[in-house]
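Recap quiz, item 2
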Amino acid sequence: MLISLHNRYSASDLGALGERKARLTGEIALSQLTRLRKLLYVYSGSVKASIVFSQQGDNCVTLEFDYETELELVCQRCLEPFTQEICEHTSVALELSSSSWPSKVNDYELLMLPDDRFSPSALIEDELIVSVPLAPVHFPEDRCGSLIKRLKNSVDCLTTQPQTSLVAENNLGVIK
Ligand SMILES: [Zn+2]
C-alpha cells in the first residue's frame, strides 16, 4: 500500500497501518485545501505533517497528528496582511466498525469513519480552519498599520528631497 496524506483510507487499511505502527510524513500544498484557502490572503505555502498510527484493540486505531504551516491572513483592524504560524498536535481515535464502543478510548475522542474512508488531509484542513480566528487581527496591536506607516515614511522622504535640491540651486545662484 502506497501511503500518503492525500489518500482516503478504508477501515482495513487503517487496521493494517495501526498494526505496524506506521508513520506517515509529507506536505500538503495550501492551494489543494479548497475550503481553507477561501480564508487566506495568499495560499502559496504548504503544511508539513506527520501521523503515527497505532492499533487499540480490534476495533480502533489512534492517530497522532503533528502539523505546522504559516497562514497569510488579513487583519480585520487595519486590513493589512500578516502571517500566523501554526504548530499543532492533535490525537484522534477512529472506530473501524460500528459497535457498542464507548465514546472515548483512553481519553481520545472516538470518531466514526466518515463515508467508510478516512482522509488525513481533510482532517488537517478541518483543524486549520478551526485555528483561523473569526476576526484575525495583528498581535500585539501596535503592529497594525505598519505597511501604511512604511509607505508614508518613504513618501515623506521623496517629498523632502526636491526641497533640498532647490536649496542647493539657490545657493549656486548666490555664488554667481
Ligand atoms: Zn492590523
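Residues 73 and 133 are 10 Å apart (CA to CA).
Residues 11-143 form one domain.
End of item.
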